[in-house]
Amino acid sequence: MRLDSGHGFVDLGFAGKGMLDNGFAGTARVAASRLDLAGCAMLGLSGTVKLHIRRARPDLAGPLAAARLDCGTIRADRPQVALKAILSEGLDSWNGTARVNLAALSMPQRRVSDVTGDVSFAGGVSGTHGKIALGTGRFAMPEAAGGQLQLRGDYAQRSGGFEYRGRVAAGSAGLSQALLDKVRGTAAAAHGTPLGPVVAQIAGAAATAAAAFDASADLVLAVSPTGMHYRLPRLEVAAANGARFSFDRGSGVRGDGSGTAPRIDGSLALRGGGMPEALVRLSQKPGDARLYGVGFVQPYAAGGSSLALSNVVFVLGESSGTMRTFATLSGPFAGGRIDRLALPLDARWRGGSITLNPGCVPVRFERIAAAGAVLAPGGVTACPLGSAMLHTGPDGVGGGIRLVRPDLSGQVGSSPLTLRAAEARLDLGTRRFGVTEAAVRLGTESVTRLDIGTLSGRFGQVIGGDFADLGGQIGTVPLVISGGAGTWKADDAGLSLAGKLQVADTAAPVRFHPLASDDAMLRLVGNDIVATAGLKTPAAGVPVGRVEIRHDLSTGKGVATIAVPGLRFAEGGLQPSDLTPLTFGVIADVGGSVEGEGRIQWSPEAVTSTGRFGTRATDLAAAFGSVRGLATEVRFSDLLNMRTEPGQVATIAEVNPGAPVTSGTIRFRLLDSQRVEVEGGRWPFAGGELVLEPTILDFSQSRERRMTFRVIGADAALFLKEMAFENLDATGTFDGTLPMVFDEKGGRIEGGSLRARAGGSIAYVGEISQRDVGFWGNMAFQALKALDYRSLTIDMNGPLAGDMVTEIRFAGVSQGKGTKSISCCGGWPSCPSCSTSGSAPPSSNCSIRCNPGTIRTG
User: Fold this and answer.
1) Contacts 24+ apart (CB under 8 A), 115-120
2) Could you give the 3-state DSSP secondary structure of residue 316?
3) Is the dihedral of CA 841, 844, 847, 852 positive or negative?
């Protein structure tokens, strides 16, 4: 028999016995090619059930099966039902239960296998309701897959529609590998930043939680010819790693099968499993598709990093959104750490792109530590570098931060620190940063100063980069550096710089000309600064020495050592005046080498310095004459002020202050960089001694400098030879003084005088003719060219480098050997005197005064 059920034709066949209206017992075959129920179509229904009819009410029990059940986009394959049902007398109502089995339940890109469970039903032609308790085997969809699904609740089928109210649950579920990889990949954006450990742990915990979890939700589902609608008033997720996610306290999530975004109203809570604890209230306004949220994130810590978000306010649209919050973060970065950095965040996104803080914001911090320095609580104004401080998208991470005139303070070790700059920039895309016009000050009483024109660097395992236009001074070290350029790096051990620079003297007037270095290095570790540099002349690049500086910022104490292993001077090459202005006009044409070392120590109370510098054999030209074979070792008691203790000794192979003297020794002390106290000098001279009397030579200004030499026991013949009187010969022993004056015009003798101790002789041994001096001059010369004297005085005046005027005065004279006799009427000429200029023969300027009478010669 065929029955029109109102949902389709049903073929019924009965076998049994008894009255069909009451008492029949047998079997019934059911077959329907298609039944349409509330927008669902059941195809290929068939089955044989046991049938009992009592009082015209059929009682059915047995299996029914269909080839397929289609409900819109939902499809059930090979549904089977173990039916227990009681029908009404008119077969227009029913009541019963069914044990359901489905080989698979699927919709586009989604599939559930092995659906089993129980369904109760009660109703009639106008509709059916009941309860559903179903479970499944594995399920799969593009976003997730899992081991099982459960559906428990009430349903109601009415004309043209189907509704379900109950709970749906998923067990042993996990997101797809593509989504898990995307979640884990979010950690890369924060790598190397203070939030790196936090983001990495959240990403890892989220990926772990999303890989294995159980989820359940309260579900209200309605299917009609116009489509599917659903509502999730409550949602809970429990991950295998302990993470818990819940959504409730509102109308929930409401959506349909159209693919548009659902509407959301409720509170979202997250905690456990390594995830941050957060609470967010979500809502949507009528007629507004955007999602509004307010909430907070409790402080979250991982790997020494922490993050807290308060006053979180956000708006999410279909493909865009905004979020504003106040963030407080702490964490490490390469070479340092930041604590409680607080700033407002303004995040915006559209499509796959996110921007953060498109405008300037105030930034405060409690502590920043890097390269041994610790910045005290402070703040700066941060502005975006470009359109935003951070932007992410298909092209990666970009954006940057610009700090406007940062002015910070803190300490290095126990020493105060101030740090100022015109501007600081951080480019997140390239992970590079730069600082311009930086000014660093360390310490209080003995401030260490470091000024850097430009400094750039890059974040990585180690922070480092380049610097230029560096200058400064370490504490009270009397050296100032400038023109520095090179590389730098900061790590857990501290800060280091390497490159080139120039070193200059801070004294006025300066004690040395600026020196250059191509291998300067500075390292700051805690309170300790260590700087080294090889020094050379800037123009010629001649190595001069090496300096090493050590400074303790906590105590303000330090030491600098200066090593000069062998500095060589040569005519036409390096000269002392190339290194210091102190020797200009004092010495020149230096040939020889200098070696030694110096040591400067300082503290907040005082600066002391010592040194030892010497030469073994140096030749030079001085204001008082040429010097050959100078050898000395000068020990400085105050190197910075060029002071020594008394008793410094210099030996000189030869010095020529007008007459060459050899093998001399000078005792002296340096009073300062401009004054030398000569304690005395002594040389063998003309068979006797030449003694330099004590004096002070002041080179600080253009003025006369006086030195007095005493001649003791000089042999007359040797003396005349030393003085280059080649045409004179003499005997006798002389003593006397040679006062010398040196100024910008050179050196000269003023008031020099030598006296013979006893008698002797003096003779002119050169050639002269009557044609040179005339008859009477020749007669006088022949009479006076050799004289014996009882007393003789030689007076000397004139420049050392020019014509010396020498006046010789005799007393108690007589003609010497080889002369012609000459007499005046009263006897010998009286008081003969002779003045010579250089080595001219004495007769050319001699005058002989005679008494009136006759001159006789013979």
Assistant:
1) 115/76, 117/151, 119/81, 119/155, 120/96
2) strand
3) positive
Number of CB atoms found within 10 A of residue 826's CB: 11
Q: How far apart are alpha carbons 66 and 59 in whole angstroms?
A: 21
Percent of the chain with pLDDT over 70: 89
- Whether residue 129 contacts residue 157, with contact meaning beta carbons closer than 8 Å, is answered with yes
pLDDT, one tens digit per residue, over 357-416 is: 999 999 999 998 876 678 889 899 999 988 888 888 777 778 889 998 999 998 877 778
Residue 196 has, within 13 A of its CA and on its CB side, a CA count of 14
What is the rounded distance in angstroms from the CA atom of residue 374 to the CA atom of residue 413?
A: 8
Statement: residue 273 has pLDDT above 80: yes
pTM over 0.70: no
β-pair partners for 842:
none
| Element of type H or E holding 152 | strand 148-158
Phi, psi of 777, rounded to the nearest 5 degrees: -65, -40
The SS3 call for residue 503 is strand
H/E run at residue 543: strand 543-552
Spatial contact of 600 and 559, defined as CB atoms under 8 Å apart: yes
Question: Going by C-beta distance under 8 Å and a sequence separation of 6 or more, which residues neighbour residue 181?
Answer: none
CB distance 10 to 30 below 8 Å: yes
H or E element at residue 777 = helix 770-784
Task: Give the residue carrying structure tokens 């006009």.
Answer: 585
CB–CB of 832/814 below 8 Å? no
Dihedrals phi, psi of 353, to nearest 5 degrees: -110, 140
**How far is residue 271's CA from residue 277's CA, in Å, rounded to a whole number?**
4
Gap between the Cα atoms of 731 and 546, Å rounded: 58
Residues in the chain: 858
